[in-house]
Amino acid sequence: MATILQTRGLKKFFGGLRAINGVDLAIEEGELRCLIGPNGAGKSTLFKLILGSYPPSAGVILFKGDDITTLQPHLRVQRGMSIKFQVPGIFLALPVEQNLRIALQRAHRGPALDQALERLLELIELGQQRGELAANLSHGQQQWLEIAMAVALQPAILLLDEPTAGMSPEETFKTGELVKKLNASGMTIVVIEHDMAFVRQIAKRVTVLHFGQVFDDGSLDKIVRNEDVVRIYLGKV
Amino acid sequence: MRRWLTLVDGPQTLGHGVAFWLAFCAIVLGAAVLPAFVDAFLITNLTYFMVWVFMALGLSLIWGYAGILSFGQTAFFGLAGYTYGVIGLNLGDAGLWTWFALLISLVLPAMLALVVGYFMFYGGVRDVFVGIVTLSITLVFETFMAQTAGPEWTIGTARLNGFNGMSNMPPLTFPWGDSPLVFDGPPFFWLVLALVVLVYVGLRILVNSRFGNVLVGIRENPDRAEMLGYNVRLYQLAVFVIGSVLAGMSGVLYTLWGSYITPSSMGLTAAALPIIWVAAGGRKDITATLLATVFLTWLSQQLAVKGNQYALIWMGAILLVVVMFAPEGLFVTVWQKLRDRRRMRRVATAPETVSFPSG
Predict the structure, then answer these.
(1) Is residue B74 within 8 Å of residue B265, measured between CB atoms?
(2) Between A and B, how many CB-CB pairs are < 8 A?
(3) The whole model's pTM is what?
(4) What is the pLDDT of residues B163-182, one digit of tens each?
(5) Which 8-state DSSP code applies to residue A136?
(6) Does B225 fall in a domain?
(7) Cβ contact (<8 Å) for B227 and A73?
(8) Domain ranges in chain A?
(9) Is the ipTM of this complex over 0.90?
């Protein structure tokens, strides 16, 4: 399998804080990877570096073999990246349908857009609430809407930053099945998550970040047997 | 054609359907035949109320739809007005020169907006700082023009004239055999009315198009819009230029209306007025903005004419009341209330689908 996303020696310093301190990460095409680690480990910062919200202090980012380290964020998205933010990043004052239309209209037109819209509404089970303002949705529904907006771009790689934060166990489970379904359709997905039940449900491979560095990496079974990982992160759960 | 027609109707604009557009046509036709029935003074006044609409619509587009609070619409207004003055006084009303002056008066604000907007949006200026930068520009313009009273401040044959302002620019003139068509009085009224209709319908299509969808997306959440692959800064720049050109259009038409332009048209008071019109009506809707602008300029004038020196204080009071009680704008709030009530009534009169056990 080809490597779709790679970081080499990636660093990000905020003043004296080494948020990301030399991360080498390689995501294979079609992979479903989980990123875990304690708060402040640099997980969200890593996503922001990958998408270009912050310029890195050092290191390179390769996407589909091209160096995109200095590429503008919207151009990275146009090349096939997509993200669901940690805090729901949707258009609160607009109806559900309009949220999805804005996401879809860059790649779709006319009847194709309408069909894609119906498919997405079905995927996140919000067909009934299509005319509702996004602000009136439950927290879980807002998360789903944002996932649908990210998926609407038909990305080569989908980055999900805590997709189940604030969800009930049932909603979390459904989200897990949704993520697995998207991955099965061929989408490469990287997930930041704290909920270990969710990680168990979806992950084949897990990367642990700690103090801005890759602390451990491998199958979930290997990770949970690593005593150091248990001490710094899992033990607290 | 059909797609364009549907774009006129929504989703980013209030008012749609046959009834709305019939009312719209009736108002426009009614206005168009008005010069046959009323005196010239009223026509001049109506023209004056409509002259400001473009600047307000431009601000509604920039602020209400794209979420950028520009406090500097008057800079483009003034630039356009003075440009028309300088070119008009130099070239006169022969041939098509007045139309050339009109064109250049719209091109210059576009170029200024392009330069200012480029540095602001690509330089990462956001939120309230856009307001501060644009307000500074209009105040600098006012200060600069105010000190041009001396004879050395002459461009060709046009004296800038400091705080006294420029006057005696020629009206728009179209060569037509022996008696050229002069856009003064009713013809100027019709021209401005036609422009209002054209700009209003054009903006409805624009804000309901794919471009408009992205604009409201950027207003609601610029980070999300960017992460959907849209070049946010380019959209902001584009909308800033369009809105500024509309301010310029008001500036030219104002200069033509009174054959007069002064630095105070770019001052703090002048700069605050468009904000009040747009906020009072409802910045997120161009129809509300249009209605509020005509109404409030009329009200201002009535208050001033009746000897009330406090027209501006009234405008401030209206802004405060709106911000406190109808933050979405007076017209938009009333509109939504009426719509909700109609919906409630429809639900209430709908046939019962649920039967309750009796007793």
Answers:
(1) yes
(2) 63
(3) 0.93
(4) 999 999 999 999 988 889 99
(5) G
(6) yes
(7) yes
(8) 90-148
(9) yes
